[in-house]
Amino acid sequence: MTEFWYDLEPFLQQGTLGLVNGAFYALLALGLAVIFGMLNVINFAHGAQFMLGAVVAWMLLTYAGIGYWGALILSPLIVGLLGVAIERTMIARLYKLDHLYGLLLTFGLALIIEGVVRNQYGVSGLPYGVPQAFRMPPVDLGYMLMPAYRFWIVVVSITVCLATWYAIEKTKIGSYLRAAVERPQLVQAFGVNVPLMMTATYGAGVALAAFAGVLAAPIYSVHPAMGANFIIIVFAVVVIGGMGSIMGSVVAGYMLGMVEGFVRVWWPEASATVVFVIMAIVLLLRPAGLFGRK
Question: What does pTM read for this prediction?
């Protein structure tokens, strides 16, 4: 029994650490799923907006002396407002066009955002320390000691994902949003300002990406490519969960983070590609994704 536990322990440890990556996958995939599911736009700028959330948090700390907790609120608001401006001036013009136009536009926006940050701050990375509140002994899980900040990331990520799912699926505003996707003219006839709702939805999706960026800042170095390192995997997560499926994206994000951790023990070289192998298998067996609708 003791030998079996020693064999199992590395998988539990790496699976738990993979859950931290899964928390970021879930938050980013959630924002992508909200934007695609509600607006039918493939937001390739999502990774750059994630990075921008971390950069704004660093700027708030460096130039305004606003720490982690203030940045956790202000940075998503600032980046979300930028998203509102982008939606009003550019993306709103593309709703009736093919998906390719939105993809090309947001891909270009991603390059512009990354280029501006690279030109201003370079590529070496900006330091952002772990908040003082989490500089404490690690959390004892029995089979490993988990840093308190990483434990916090998992908890807050699950909370935000569940709250977003509840708001969209179980509230009156969420029902308006879902109805506006299918019958915008009918919803507008009932006195609902559909364009404003669409703008707010895009801003909220961007704010979710920025929120994940603030959470990531103390773990990963804040640099222009940090979003690009995540976004391809996150698109795979959304495809596996089902394009536009809120719960599917969240579940697939956590699941794939843990799978990456397990594979890192069994076959380390394959951990970087296992997500895409799973995506290929899912697309072959269920093209709509695990939770998607045909």
Answer: 0.91
In-domain check, residue 140 = yes
Contacts for 5 with CB less than 8 Å, ≥ 6 apart: none
The tens digit of pLDDT for each residue in 250-260 reads: 899 999 888 88
Q: Kindly state the tokens that stand for 25.
A: 């996958």
Asked whether residue 71 is assigned to any structural domain, the reply reads yes
| pLDDT tens readout for residues 41-52 | 889 999 999 999
For residue 166, give the H/E element and its range. Answer: helix 148-170
Write down the residue that tokens 């192998």 correspond to.
277
Tell me the pLDDT of the chain averaged across its residues: 86
Q: Say if residues 38 and 169 touch (Cβ distance below 8 Å).
A: no
The one-character DSSP state at 293 is -
Provide the domain count of the chain: 1
Instruction: Decide if 255 is inside a domain.
Output: no
Helices (H) and strands (E) in the chain, counts: 11, 2
